[in-house]
Amino acid sequence: MGSRFKGYIEPAAMPRLHQFFGTPVTTWILNRLYHQRFSDIHCGMRAMTIDALRRIDIESQGWEYASEMVLKASKLRMRTAEVPVRFYKDREGRESHHRRAGWWSPWKAGWDNLKVMILYAPEAFLRLPGLVMLVPGLLLSLALVGGPIDVGAFELSLNWSLLGLTLAALGSTAVGLSVLARVRHDLDPAYTDRVLRRVSFDRGSVAAAGLMGAGVLLNGVLLVNWIAQGFALREIYHPVVFGLLLIVLGFQVFAFTLLLQIVAPARP
After folding, report:
1. Are strands 154-156 and 149-151 parallel, antiparallel or unpaired?
2. Residue 243 — φ and ψ, nearest 5°?
């Protein structure tokens, strides 16, 4: 890849918006998300082998192809190198694509590049936030199954149990979606094969049935009390909240297993 920032940029060759904001910022974001050290991800001077081009399999239809090419090369663990290039002003009478398209064009190009970076980074935008919610949510839900807990002068009561349910449900959804996204992209075949070996439709169905069955049993307590109180619910018990969480997780496990079989790439 060429790098204008490691080479030479003739005065007025690059708009200030691109030189001092757009390109440096989007380059920094891609480097953070994909653990790279590029200096200029939008330079159009590029060379690659035919095999690399086929493996990258560009899908973008606009300016975002530049980021897609770089981030896929990173995901596929390809060898990359930057070469300093000299960037000159347009010759007399030539006007850049962005100028012809209007003031909105560079902002749209920037957003399109950010969008493709997000689409191929489920670890940062789904798995990590999901784990941050899932682990505390499960711990909180498990801790409050038996009822309220006093922490000094502070009480963890039913509201905290509902918070745990919400965090665990949202977290498990995000983690599951991150796995589905990585399998769908299939940029790491070893990861895809590992997931498909461990998560079969049969195993997922059994796990989902077990979770939902346990949840239904716990919620049987709520049903009995509801009937005993003349179909007027006056109190919700902590085990019932945990039962609801198990039902939600069971359904999510089944949906995840089903979608995994749908989006998984074909293997010979």
Report:
1. antiparallel
2. -65, -40
